[in-house]
Model the fold of this input.
Amino acid sequence: MRNAILHGKKISKVYANGQGKNTVLNEIDVNIYKEDFTIIMGTSGSGKSTLLYTLSGMDLPTSGDVEYKGKNLCSISEKEMARLRAREFGFVFQQSHLVSNLTLLENVLVAGYVSHTEKKSEIRKRAETMLQDMGIWEAKDRLPSETSGGEMQRAAIARAVISSPDLIWCDEPTGALNKSNTEDILNLLSDINKKGQSILMVTHDLRAAIRGNRILYLEDGKIIDELILTPYREAEEKQRERRISKWLSELQW
Ligand code: ADP
Ligand code: MG
Done:
């Protein structure tokens, strides 16, 4: 039996659309499993981001519930939600959304301090090690505007994982990067997942999707299919790419 850490139950999201309504998510039931690298795919506008926002508590569904560690994210207090976001969830988006008047290191530190999980000195030590491991030590004292997109996105990942969250939510994290930065960022995410942190990533990039061990396909407001794979291994990249590509073409992606 696999261990689910998050349950989406009959999740619907409906937007008003002129006189009518646009049902983006239609009573979706989905579990997210511990230590998985879950991918969400689907055509543009199919509701991938909306699903990520509603499952992660960033936005409320129109109806349905999200259960995480016995709590309903749709009804917990703002305070509890803020605590959860600071400690148990990490977020990475297409744009890094770093605070513009803080250096890369300061951006990571602030996220660590807000989580109140460790002593400040411990957090600083870990942040520094992380930035070294990620290859952005040289850029640590620069403002985001003085760094490249790849450097900013590395810092955004460090910020997302500094408080050792259980679950990292990524919405097209490589969508604005060139090929080499994309591979670097994906390697970082794979390493994080290998160390036991669960990841849920929305992507439309096959190169990114091969990192997952479970791919959900969203269409017409439903998860219409899923593909289960073994955990990512670099040696199997070509086979994974072929397998996913074949699956996607059957889904007419
Ligand atoms: P994807 O991430 O798969 O490209 P989104 O989740 O961003 O798709 O959007 C799915 C649908 O929901 C689109 O038709 C979009 O126009 C609509 N949508 C998203 N956000 C809003 C909003 N805040 N108000 C109204 N419609 C929205
Ligand atoms: Mg999107």
Observations:
- Helices lie at 48-55, 78-87, 104-115, 120-133, 149-161, 179-194, 206-209, 237-250.
- The first strand starts at residue 4 and ends at 17.
- Residues 48-49 surround magnesium ion (ligand 2) (CB under 6 Å).
- Residues 18 and 24 are 15 Å apart (CA to CA).
